[in-house]
Amino acid sequence: MERGVAVAAAGALACGCVLGAAIHERSQLPPLGPLPPAAAAASAPPPGPTDAEVEEDVCENNLIVSEPTGAHEVTIILLPGFTGSADTLLPWFKRIEECGVSLENVRVVATTAPKRRITCYDGWRANAWFDYIDEQFDKEDIIDEAQLAQSRQAATKLVSTEVEKLGGDQSKVLLLGFSQGGNMAYDVALSYPSQLGGLIARRTSLRNESDLGSHKGLPILHFHGEEDDSIGCNRGKAGVARLQAAGFTNCKLHTEPGLNHTEFSEKEMGMYAEFVLSLFPQLKQELPSELKGFCYCGAVHYSVRGGACGVPACFCHCESCRRSHAAPLYQVCYVPVEDFTITAGSEHIKAHKFRHFCGECGSKIFNEVAGPQGPRRGFFPSTLEEATQHKLPGRFRPTFHNLSNEAVLHDLPKDATPLAGVLITGSNGNRVKQETKNCNARTKKLQRRAP
Ligand SMILES: [Zn+2]
Ligand SMILES: [Zn+2]
Fold first, then answer.
1. pLDDT per residue as tens digits for the range 337-356
2. How far, in Å, from the CA of 192 to the mean position of ligand 1?
3. From CA 412, how far away is CA 91, in angstroms rounded?
4. Phi/psi class of residue 159: alpha, beta or left (left: φ > 0; alpha: ψ in -120 to 50)?
5. Residues forming beta bridges with residue 127, ordered by sequence position
6. Per-residue pLDDT tens digits for 38-67
7. Residue 200: helix, strand or coil by DSSP?
8. Which of 41, 144, 236, 238 is the most exposed place for a label (fewest CB within 10 A)?
9. Is 179 in the same domain as 278?
């Protein structure tokens, strides 16, 4: 019951309804007049979710799973950071397929931390593995250690469930944690009864409370931006140094100059791909150096240099695209203009605004748009050669929905992120929304710190 009230209040905050939050706060106030000690204790703010509720959230309610399309050989578990959620971390991670990792035999499990009251944000409720009593930048935050232990228990259960699904082989489970979720990933992997397959610690730190345990051969990759503005890079380095000093022999640190806490990094994704393939070489997917496609009547043929590797695909739902393609949504992949070539039938190409199509059969061939990184051409993976078309490579599985606010479909495929109102202008078009969201959280944090 208490929890229901809390969730409603969080919703009120999310839509900017200050009044709703005020009513909620007032409901926590003790009645007037002096109170006997027992009554005073009972009127204290709710202690937060119970162990059972945390476990239920982490292991069931908040799970988003990307199932393998082939046999289940590996599980990768994703733990998002403070205020983050599974539905943004999962599509981000799936971009690893652009770097030559096939997820065909991988179960990717993303969860979200439960909602908690955050002390240093005046009781604001947010997805959090543990409360920040005081949030720090270049030294350890002051946290609620009991809640860290509570989340450890829940996340460990999540790992155990996956180990069971893999016939009890814990070496087939890889844990990836971002930011506060990275604090958890370190903590859980180091304290797990047996050594897991590996750990990716993304822009995070190893907390002092975390016991190092005895899995000294655990493969660990720690990645940190040198301009990280939430968890100082020095904290990431200190944790890795502590592990190495304790005899962890397989712990690597990589820092990237100029990178902050939330910016997308292709280099980072490439390093994760390399790390995953070093643990599970069978996931390697050979990427073609060239793709070929053609229109409905076969008069026009095209080729995409570089195989569109490292380029995300998306669904677009906007009215203009729906009309021109006569479809409820369409799939597009934008590459640098010089990578897309018409190899036959260019005399048949007609154009209307930025859309180019075959003048004989009307098939759409490409879009041409200006982008921050120069002009780009968008091709449509569903017109690739038949051999490819019957089973599109995983890297063309769209990772986001463009203009999902205009969607006519009621149920959007869940493994892509809905981005309302964001136009694609280049290969990194999907970063705009995420950064906006994270910037808002950061601004909020700074405002609350202001005297
Ligand atoms: Zn044609
Ligand atoms: Zn569109």
1. 999 999 999 999 999 999 99
2. 58
3. 14
4. alpha
5. 115
6. 444 445 555 789 999 999 999 999 999 988
7. strand
8. 41
9. yes
Rounded Cα–Cα distance for residues 367 and 120 (Å): 49
The structure tokens listed for 220 are: 């660990």
Which ligand approaches the C-alpha of residue 348 most closely?
1
Which residue in this structure is represented by tokens 């017109």? Answer: 383
Q: Token pair for residue 392?
A: 């599109």
Q: From ligand 2's centre to the CA of 325, what distance in Å?
A: 10
Q: What is the DSSP letter of 211?
A: -
Query: Distance between CA atoms of 185 and 208, rounded to whole angstroms?
Result: 14
Q: Among 193, 189, 163, 166, which residue's Cα sits nearest to residue 176?
A: 189
Burial status of residue 70 (CB atoms within 10 A of its CB: 0-12, 13-18, 19 or more): exposed
Adjacency order of strands within the sheet including 301-305: 290-294, 301-305, 340-344
What's the number of CA atoms in the CB half-sphere (13 Å) around residue 321?
23
Could you tell me the distance, in angstroms and rounded to a whole number, from the CA of residue 362 to the centre of ligand 1? 6
Distance 140 CA to ligand 1 centre (A): 62
Same domain, 345 and 319: yes
Length of the chain: 451
Q: Which ligand is nearest to the CA of 357?
A: 1
- Within a domain: residue 395? yes
Q: Domain containing 132: what range?
A: 51-283
> Which one of the ligands is nearest to 300 CA?
1
Q: Considering every ligand atom shown, identify the ligand nearest to the alpha carbon of residue 361 and give its number.
A: 1
* Structural domains in the chain (count): 3
- Say which ligand is closest to the CA of 429: 2
For ligand 2, the distance from its centroid to the CA atom of residue 196, given in whole angstroms, is 43
Establish if 451 belongs to a structural domain. Answer: no
- pLDDT (tens digit per residue) in 141-199: 999 999 999 999 999 999 999 999 999 999 999 999 999 999 999 999 999 999 999 99
Which pair of tokens denotes residue 156?
Answer: 């460990």
Q: What is the Å distance from ligand 2's center to 247 Cα?
A: 53
Lowest mean pLDDT among 93-107, 199-213, 374-388, 401-415: 401-415
- Please report which confidence band the pLDDT of residue 29 belongs to, taking 50, 70 and 90 as the band edges: very low
Residue in the structure block whose two tokens are 């005399």: 347
Question: Among 34-43, 79-88, 122-131, 178-187, which is the least confidently predicted range?
Answer: 34-43
Distance 321 CA to ligand 2 centre (A): 4
**Residues whose CB is less than 8 angstroms from the CB of residue 410 and which lie 6 or more positions away in sequence, other chains included:** none
Tell me, yes or no, whether 450 lies in a domain.
no
**226-242 tens-digit pLDDT:** 999 999 999 999 999 99
Domain end point (choices 283, 312, 336): 283
Predicted pLDDT at 45: 57
Host H or E run for residue 332:
strand 330-336
